[in-house]
Every structure is written in structure tokens, then in C-alpha cells.
Amino acid sequence: MELKPRDPDWEVRVRTSFNAQNFMTHLGAELVHLAPGAVDIELKMQDTLTQQHGFFHAGATSSVADSAAGYAALSLFAASTGVLTSEYKINLLNPARQPVLIARGRVVKPGRTLTIAKSDVIGVEDGAEVHVATGLFTLVSVPGMKD
Amino acid sequence: MELKPRDPDWEVRVRTSFNAQNFMTHLGAELVHLAPGAVDIELKMQDTLTQQHGFFHAGATSSVADSAAGYAALSLFAASTGVLTSEYKINLLNPARQPVLIARGRVVKPGRTLTIAKSDVIGVEDGAEVHVATGLFTLVSVPGMKD
Amino acid sequence: MELKPRDPDWEVRVRTSFNAQNFMTHLGAELVHLAPGAVDIELKMQDTLTQQHGFFHAGATSSVADSAAGYAALSLFAASTGVLTSEYKINLLNPARQPVLIARGRVVKPGRTLTIAKSDVIGVEDGAEVHVATGLFTLVSVPGMKD
Amino acid sequence: MELKPRDPDWEVRVRTSFNAQNFMTHLGAELVHLAPGAVDIELKMQDTLTQQHGFFHAGATSSVADSAAGYAALSLFAASTGVLTSEYKINLLNPARQPVLIARGRVVKPGRTLTIAKSDVIGVEDGAEVHVATGLFTLVSVPGMKD
Question: Mind telling me which InterPro entries this protein's record contains (chains A, B, C, D) (predicted)?
Fold first, then answer.
């Protein structure tokens, strides 16, 4: 499936919106890859992000998975529309205790109103990859909402 | 359905584990209600928690929903077992732009290995409540994992 | 939350559409309760509906849960719109081996385009109720689609 | 990820169990592909399987998706354990109005107790494939349950 942006300024728009997400800054997340329908977000382990066993909190893992899916969707939206997450489901597959997480958001089915995306979160340690989480997301395109 | 804790120290155990979740501290979340199979977590709006439109980020909303569900489950677990989230699904029902969110985690079906819980997130503004999100969570009881 | 039908003919419309679902007939499902935003569907145990252990197949349980949620949503839709299930998640809580299942679909959040509903499936045996499944559903209102 | 069966009789076991699912027979579903961690199930369009617009009912689509995921999991289980679906989530991506559906169940993360699988449902018409649905499933291995 070839995914085509409808907004020629899609790249600036996604980066501007990501930078406006204070929560991503608060976590320390970075947008490390951007293509039409595909966004990768990286999160380095820090003490502030842990649950009681010292792993990444499921909420931190899910937050980057959600932003990666949301921006993968936004990269394909028409100009002058904003993105909201309607719902998602995530399976936490392995303990997230690697030094770096990468959330790979990919559009599965683009649409005018609803876009379905998946997000796979990979933990990276010493060059090896662990599949930490996989999720499915429904994103809504909201006309007139600045993003 | 009557829910009975199997560990007489359930209350101390849940509070200790919650306090050990650095991520909850980083968000500014507080445990405000605790009963067998029921945990409420409160999150006050701060600039650090927003997405690009100034609402609570879906990741912040989900994080407190997840912790509320997880601790509702842990409150019923046997001693010397830890809790991990296996998977969850959440629907974001209304924009989360109220000054305060309360995530109400409630056990739906307790079990020795798997416990199913729901979490409803309410936004509170001027005494009025808005149903911000609803989710279903599968929590796993892990023997020998300190919580 | 008070739920008001937008179509004065909502009741006839839901019953007509349910009767047009051949799959519900094939399963032997019956619409046993109908109110604005609330639909109950009953399914009696038959040999044709079982999985390998003789319980109701998860697919049969989910099918009535889905129809109950979908018709709870349709009962609130404007005239001349149809209903499609966009996505759902279901947790199977207890073995479905009772003589009768009742799926109770209830609208959680009505909307012009997206409606969120839940569905709880109850197994009934000798007057006792077992909570067999609980699910969350996103239903889409499709203008111009006859239902 | 290489997936290895733990039971040398995995193939006979999966086929025997599938044939014992009366519900699959009632739908007209056929097991058309079987490998360790991978099962395809085919469902031909029939009048008995439709919703009110003449498409496959979401419940029929989900039923074959669930069985494909469940048997992909069972193919990797130890002998003398049975499989139950704990929960799943499915997104219906495109109208299911093709003459044939194929549900492709694939194990994402095998485990002793919990196995996570995905299932993609493809509609086939005149040699062209349409992505009809995608879902994530949690399967439980139940010791001592004959499958």
C-alpha cells in the first residue's frame, strides 16, 4: 500500500505538532524517523519513567506508542485538520527494561475520518532488539482543529 | 461480587508499591482512594502533561488509568506476588481538559493468575464530572516478584 | 445520562434491521429487550454453537455482544444512517457453558459519527447469573446507508 | 523468531480440535494452512453469514479470526494442555463483501501460560486482496484440559 500525504507541508506540520506536545518533552521522547504514514519515537530509560520494579512504566511505553501512531496518521491528513486518539489497545509482550525504547507507528488503513495504525515498541540493548509491545490505534481527523 | 484481599497487609503493600512508581511521581499523580479491588488515582492538570491542543495527553490519561487498574488488582493478590499489566484497551470519550482527572480502577474478575479490571477516568471541573475515558485491563499475578 | 432517539421510528428500524441479519437467525439469537441506547440479545445453547470443549465458541459469544452493542447505538442514530462496527475489544471472563447467554449492549457515549458502547454477556443457569464476557465497541454512523 | 512446537503431535492435535469445533462447521469454515505458530482459516460467503447490508457479519469475521489465532497458539503448546481465548481486540478495516475471507493467525509472542497472536483477515475477489480486519489475541494455555 502506497501512502501519499494530502498536505504538502506534512513534514513541518508533524514536527511542529510533536514539539508542541509538552508531555513528550516531559518524558524525554524524541522523534527520530518521519515518512508518510510512518513515525518512530525514541525514549531513553530514566529514573523518572519507571514502575515499581525499575522497568519502563506501561504508561510511558504506551505514551510513545500512541504518539508514534498518532503522528503516522497525521502525516497523511489533509491540511487544517487535527488528530485525536479515539481508542487503542496494547499488549505488553516483554519487560521493558532496555536502555532505549523505539516506538514504530505505521498506518494500516488511512481514511478521511478514521485512520487505523499499529505501533510496535522495541527495546534495544547492546544492539539486540526485544519486542516490548504491540498495539492498534484508531485516530480521528478533526476538521478545523489546528495541529 | 464481594472482593476479599488474600494478603492481610494489602493496604501497606499497595501504598508502598505506588510510592515506588517513579513515573507516577513524575506525572504528579496521587493515590486518593483504596479499598479491596478499588483504587482511585488523581492527576492535576499541569503544563507538563499536555498534548498539542493543551489537553491531557492520551498517554497521561492512560497511565493513571493503568495504575488504578493495576493497584485495584494488586490489592487482591496473594502475598509475595507482583503485578504486571499484560494488555489493555482504552476509549477516549471526551477531551481531557478539566483541571483534575480521577481514574477509578475496579476489579471485574479476580483470578489466581489473570485479573480483569476496568478503569474509568473522570474529568472534574467546577464540581461537574465528564467521562473522559473507559478501559479494560488484564493484570498478571507474578509469583516471587516483589511488589 | 439521558439517551434520546433522534429518529421517531427508532424501534421499528432496529427490529427490522435485526431481522435482516441472517447471521443472527443462523445462530438462533433473539432480540429480547429494546430501549433507547439499550439492547439485549439472547442466545440459547445449541450443538452448532460450541467450541472443542462444548462451551459457546468465543465467536458466538462475541457475535451477540457485537449485535447488542451495534443496535444499542443504532437506536440513537438519525434517520437515514446505517451502523457499522469499527472495532471492539472483548474479555472472556468465565467459561460460557450455561444454557442461555444474554448480551446486554449499552451506549456509553453517543455521538454524531462515533458512538461508544459496552456489552456485557451473562450466562444464566438455574436462575443464577455468571459474567461471561465484557467488551467495548466503537460504532460508526454512516449517512445514506439504509439500515 | 523461530517457533518450535513442544508437542510432536501438534499437527494432528490442531486438526482434531478444529474438527471438534461445531461452530466452525456451522459457519462453513475450513482450515486451509497449518504450520508451527501459523494457521489460516477460510470462510466462503453464504447467505447465512450476513449482517443487514449483505456483508459478512462482524461476528463471522471475528469468529474465524479468533479460531485462526487460537490454533496458531495451540500448535506451539505442550501436550495435555488446552487453549482458551482470554481476550481480543479487532479493527474492521474495510467492508467484508468479498466471496472468500481468509483469516491468517500468527503467533507474535509464545509463552508457557499466555501466548499473544495476531490475526489478519483478507477478503479475496477476482484474485485481488482487501484487508478486511486486523486483531490482537491473548490465548491461555490450560494444563490438563483436553484439546
Answer: ACOT13, HotDog_dom_sf, PAAI_dom, Thioestr_dom
What is the sign, positive or negative, of the torsion defined by CA atoms of C2, C7, C12, C18?
A: negative
Q: Find out whether C88 and D90 touch, Cβ atoms under 8 Å.
A: yes
C93 lies within 8 A of chain B by CB: yes
In this predicted structure, what is the pLDDT of residue B1? Answer: 66
The shortest C-alpha distance from B86 to chain C (Å) reads 13
| pLDDT band, residue C11 (cuts 50/70/90) | very high
Interface touch C136/B91, C-beta < 8 Å: yes
B54-82 average pLDDT score: 97
Residues B20-36 have pLDDT tens digits of 999 999 999 999 999 99
> Minimal CA–CA distance to C44: which of C21, C24, C14?
C24
Whether residue C17 lies within 8 A of chain D, CB to CB, comes out as yes
C88, C66 in Cβ contact below 8 A?
yes
Sequence-separated (6 or more) residues with CB below 8 Å from residue C27: C43, C49, C60, C63, C64, D59
Beta-ladder partners of A39: A34, A105
Domains, chain A: 10-143 (3.10.129.10)
D112–chain A Cβ distance below 8 A for any pair: no
Helices (H), chain C: 10-19, 22-27, 58-74
User: Using CA atoms, how far apart are residues A107 and C120, in angstroms rounded to an integer?
Assistant: 31
Q: A-chain residues within 8 Å CB-CB of B21?
A: 50-52, 57
What residues of chain B lie within 8 A of the CB of C134, using their CB? 108, 116, 118, 136
Asked whether the beta carbons of B73 and B3 are under 8 A apart, the reply is: no
User: In this complex, which chains have at least 3 CB pairs below 8 Å with chain B?
Assistant: A, C, D
Q: What's the CA gap between A8 and D109, in Å, rounded? A: 39
